[in-house]
Specification:
The chain contains 18 helices and 26 strands. It is an alpha/beta fold and about 625 residues long. The strands form seven sheets. A nine-stranded mixed sheet has the order 19-9-10-8-5-20-21-4-22, sandwiched between helices. It has a four-stranded antiparallel sheet with strand order 12-13-17-16. A four-stranded mixed sheet has the order 23-24-25-26. α3 runs parallel beside α6 (about 155-175) and α4 (about 125-135) packs across α6.
């Protein structure tokens, strides 16, 4: 790319990962340099010196962390390759509905206000056409599936929805560990198309389950059966993904029918001591009156009897020959003998040792089944995944809110404490709440301000001392104001991300420095600017303080970034500071609106970004976000 800068012609070219070659064809010092755009140089981060390859190797503190922005922007900007253990997403279903959230305002203004949280109605437009082209041009299975969808659906609203989902699923596959799993929650409106899309992204061989969740008690739909369920597709990235069985209580009927017997140790059920198939060794020989070979079987005590024998006898059963093991089990009372003559001996499996029933793929709360769940007489079958009603304590009046129990089942099945859980459409924060309860690290992303407010209020109520970070990629001043009002450190982080530097986030005295910007001149001389960020009110004293900080730190320049417009005395004080090397002002004032508009600080020309070794980078720089179609949210 060739850039004309006053009387200078400068040729930009990439010569290595994250490094930009700058060749001066004609030299004339200029007063200001505007960074090339993301589209110009193909930089994923939209900032100089950050290549897409490097950006994806950067890591931030993986949770707990809440992101305000479009997940298609946040994922490549912040989330490293193979860093997430489990993904749950509850994307918009394309159900042609707009949802409103009723919530109490924290400023004690009118007690309730209706705020449009998201709109899950999608329309095919020029933005959809561009997104379709971008995905298809990459080739591969996802491209093939979208081409097939277009041939069948045409340029329709449903195709617009699927085009929105495709690149997001690709990004989620990238951030998942090889041992990662993903659960996509959807409804019958688009589930059949999403299943094909998931097959294209993750491979049909990595499909594990289609979980059916009962979402309501009844539905009086006309001319069809009442639609009561939604679907959760469960995929893994590879065979390395773990699965931790989740157990639920037995029904009282099952206990009554199977655990019929009782001794001094408690209730038990008889279970076979044999396995299928004939053996010629000791396991095929007769014991007492019973010969398993006659029934086409052989002796095969389960691991349970070995553990139970050790618990009761305090020794290892395996030290004895096989048939003698059976004698030992009988001596200690672990053999059940039927009352009929020549009956088959079984071992006793005690109810107190029975952990419960492994979850199957239908999760359906059954109202009116109180007393049917063994051990919890006041609960119904699948009580933990009951749909939420206005009477439920966890209900937040968020229209698509899911119960914590639903997410708890999913998280327990795919992760262990300390693992990372990601929800890229986190809505009212149910995934975050479940992850926090289960001691998992979490990452939540949502594009709507209402969702972020609901989540932060929820965390403040349930975990008032929880230390978590908020980061954002706002695209309008309204969103910048929202971010700064909710969390001043998140605003500070956003400013530093836009400048392409690491933020010095100290929740206390920071000595007037919120970050440092380092560049190098042609001669290799370092040029250093200290950055001060103010998200609230501003005054001339702050500019004087920054001048003092520049002198104390022996920096070349001070950069003052403010959300509010600077006053005339502030501008006059900055001008009075004079110029430094290269006629660059000693104090520069930028507003948040300047940063949104692409304006950058004045720096020496040519420059090269000072970079740390990859292993030393703790937090990635953020991303200049192009304005494009807003993603919708179903929580």
């Amino acid at each position: 790319m060739i850039s004309l800068l006053r009387d200078a012609i400068v040729v930009f070219g990439a010569i290595g990962r994250g490094v930009v070659k700058v060749t001066i064809v004609a030299t004339d010092v200029i007063a200001q340099v505007r960074f090339p755009t993301c589209q110009d140089l193909g930089w994923a981060e939209g900032q100089p010196g950050r290549s897409q390859e490097m950006a994806r190797q950067l890591r931030f503190d993986l949770g707990p962390c809440l992101f305000f922005g479009d997940n298609l922007d946040v994922l490549p900007a912040y989330i490293a390759d193979e860093s997430v253990d489990l993904v749950y997403l509850d994307p918009p279903f394309n159900s042609q509905q707009s949802y409103n959230v009723i919530f109490k305002r924290v400023d004690k203004a009118p007690p309730a206000a209706q705020v449009k949280a998201f709109d899950d109605t999608w329309r095919w437009d020029i933005g959809s056409e561009r997104a379709f082209r971008d995905v298809v041009e990459k080739g591969g299975p996802v491209s093939q599936v979208l081409l097939s969808f277009r041939a069948f659906l045409g340029p329709s609203d449903m195709l617009a929805y699927l085009v929105m989902m495709a690149p997001r699923l690709v990004e989620l596959q990238r951030v998942m560990k090889e041992s990662g799993s993903i659960y996509l929650h959807c409804d019958p409106t688009a589930s059949h198309y999403l299943k094909l899309l998931m097959d294209a992204v993750f491979g049909p061989e990595n499909f594990r389950n289609e979980i059916v969740w009962r979402r309501t008690g009844s539905n009086s739909a006309a001319k069809r059966f009442g639609p009561l369920h939604q679907t959760v597709f469960y995929y893994v990235k590879s065979d390395k993904a773990p699965f931790y069985p989740v157990l639920t209580p037995y029904t009282t009927g099952y206990i009554r029918d199977y655990f019929k017997y009782e001794d001094e140790r408690g209730r038990y059920r008889p279970v076979l001591l044999t396995g299928p198939g004939v053996r010629t060794g000791e396991s095929g020989k007769a014991w007492r009156h019973y010969n398993p070979t006659n029934g086409g079987r052989h002796w095969q005590p389960s691991s349970y009897v070995y553990d139970k024998y050790r618990e009761l006898a305090g020794e290892d059963l395996a030290q004895y020959p096989l048939l003698e093991r059976l004698d030992k089990l009988d001596e200690i009372g672990l053999i059940w003998w039927p009352k009929v003559a020549n009956g088959v001996p079984n071992y006793k499996y005690y109810l107190d040792d029975a952990p419960g029933v492994m979850l199957q793929d239908i999760w359906a709360y059954q109202p009116g089944t109180e007393g049917c769940v063994y051990g919890v007489p006041n609960e119904c079958i699948d009580q933990d995944v009951k749909w939420l009603s206005p009477r439920d304590k966890e209900k937040l009046n968020y229209p698509t809110q899911k119960p914590v129990g639903l997410l708890s089942r999913i998280i327990r099945a795919g992760t262990k404490p300390g693992d990372v859980v990601l929800d890229p459409f986190c809505g009212c924060g149910t995934t975050i709440a479940a992850a926090q309860i289960l001691d998992r690290r979490w990452i939540g992303i949502d594009i709507t301000k209402v969702a972020i407010e609901v989540i932060q209020d929820r965390l403040k109520k349930d975990y008032p001392t929880l230390d978590y970070s908020v980061r954002g990629i706002p695209t309008t001043m309204d969103e910048v104001d929202f971010l700064a009002d909710r969390d001043k450190y998140a605003f500070q982080q956003w400013v530093c991300d836009r400048l392409g530097i690491d933020a010095d986030i100290r929740k206390g005295a920071d000595h007037g420095i919120d970050g440092e910007l380092v560049r190098y001149t042609v001669a290799g001389k370092p040029w250093r600017a200290v950055v001060s960020v103010k998200g609230g009110g501003v005054n001339v004293t702050q500019i004087r303080d920054l001048r003092g900080t520049v002198e104390r730190e022996k920096a070349d320049t001070g950069i003052f970034v403010t959300r509010k417009l600077p006053t005339k005395p502030m501008r006059d004080e900055a001008i009075a500071a004079g110029l430094g090397d290269g006629d660059i002002p000693k104090i520069q004032i930028l507003t948040a609106a300047d940063l949104l508009g692409g304006k950058a600080p004045q720096v020496p020309l040519p420059t090269m970004v000072a970079q740390k070794p990859l292993e030393a980078v703790a937090k990635p720089e953020g991303k200049a976000v192009p304005t494009h179609k807003r993603q919708a949210k179903a929580g």
